[in-house]
């Protein structure tokens, strides 16, 4: 497949490309702490990545994940009110893996073992500003559409 993803932190935008042609642009929310590679930084890693795994095919919209596993919950605004500090991972997960040793792969900068995803979040949190704990958040309908448009191994470039 000749599709790739370009994620611009400055614009808070994910672009789905086929070769050099733009297929679709989506709003995203990246890390509140900005760009960065280190484990524990709660920053969004930059550089060349790939989709390591796709998780959640066919599950209902707003399904809740913890540790990449379904909990059986379906998110609602009442869920958020009951647990306001929870970092909700909803609907689908595209788990990223870094491709650049020393920048986003291996050791203390490894994107995979930092558990950096592109994932759904409560739609009300999508305000067009960086607010995540390092991951790339999307609206639930958007992540489902994107999930169905890409394959594992798809290149992902994250930049400022």
TrEMBL record:
Pathway: Cell wall biogenesis; peptidoglycan biosynthesis. Residues 3-159 form the L,D-TPase catalytic domain. It comes from the Bacteria. GO terms for molecular function: glycosyltransferase activity; peptidoglycan L,D-transpeptidase activity. Coiled coil: none annotated. The keyword Glycosyltransferase applies. Belongs to the YkuD family. This is ErfK/YbiS/YcfS/YnhG family protein. It comes from Methylomonas methanica (strain DSM 25384 / MC09). The lineage of its organism: Bacteria, Pseudomonadati, Pseudomonadota, Gammaproteobacteria, Methylococcales.
